[in-house]
Specification:
By secondary structure, the protein is of the alpha/beta class. The protein has one domain (4-157): Leucine Aminopeptidase, subunit E, domain 1 (3-Layer(aba) Sandwich), CATH 3.40.220.10. The chain contains four helices and six strands; from the N terminus they run ββααββαβαβ. The chain has helices spanning 36-43, 46-56, 100-117, 135-147, and strands spanning 4-8, 20-27, 68-74, 77-85, 120-123, 153-157. Strands 1-6-5-2-4-3 form a six-stranded mixed β-sheet, sandwiched between helices. Helix 3 (100-117) packs parallel to helix 4. The longest helix is centred in the last third of the chain and has 18 residues, at 100-117. The radius of gyration is 15 Å and the shape is globular.
């Protein structure tokens, strides 16, 4: 079972050879405009437009917490729009927007897609920025889904060490 490999660099520019999936977390209210999504949009317009269409047509599709949309942005390169954040602000009880059960569900789907494509998975420290999650809860979800599926995962910390 591979472990999570940490890399200093830009998750939108993975240098590992072979097919790749860049995974990130989206909210369930159709908002796209802060955090890692801006780096994605700066490189590829398709993930944002596809996410917005997915949200706009949610009455007729599977848009919901725990679901993933795969957007091909290049030869053997996909963006995984993972819906794992409920709204964008803390709840009245102080709970962060991250939904760990949805993260786990999304990661299972990403791992399955990665197996089908013989791809590696690349991501920033998902769920730990605007979503308000903590890495000590996210990392075990990655290991318990992608790691168990034997899919290599590369986590990027932006910038130099």
């Amino acid at each position: 079972m591979p472990t999570v490999t940490y890399i200093h660099g830009d998750a939108t520019s993975p240098s590992i050879p072979g097919p790749k999936i860049i995974a990130h977390i989206c909210n369930d209210i159709g908002g796209w405009g802060k955090g890692f999504v801006l780096a994605i949009t700066n490189r590829w317009p398709e993930p944002e437009s596809r996410y917005r269409d997915w949200f706009a047509n949610r009455a007729a599709n599977d848009f919901a917490l725990g679901r993933v949309q795969f957007v091909e942005v290049g030869d053997n390169l996909w963006i995984a729009n993972m819906i794992a954040q409920h709204k964008i602000e803390r709840g009245h009880d102080g709970a962060p927007p991250i939904r760990y059960d949805a993260v786990e569900s999304c990661l299972r789907q990403v791992a399955q897609f990665a197996l089908e494509q013989s791809a590696t998975i690349h991501m920033p420290r998902i769920g730990c920025g605007l979503a308000g999650g903590t890495w000590d809860k996210i990392e075990p979800l990655i290991v318990g889904t992608c790691g168990v599926a034997n899919v290599p995962v590369f986590v990027y910390d932006f910038g130099s060490p």
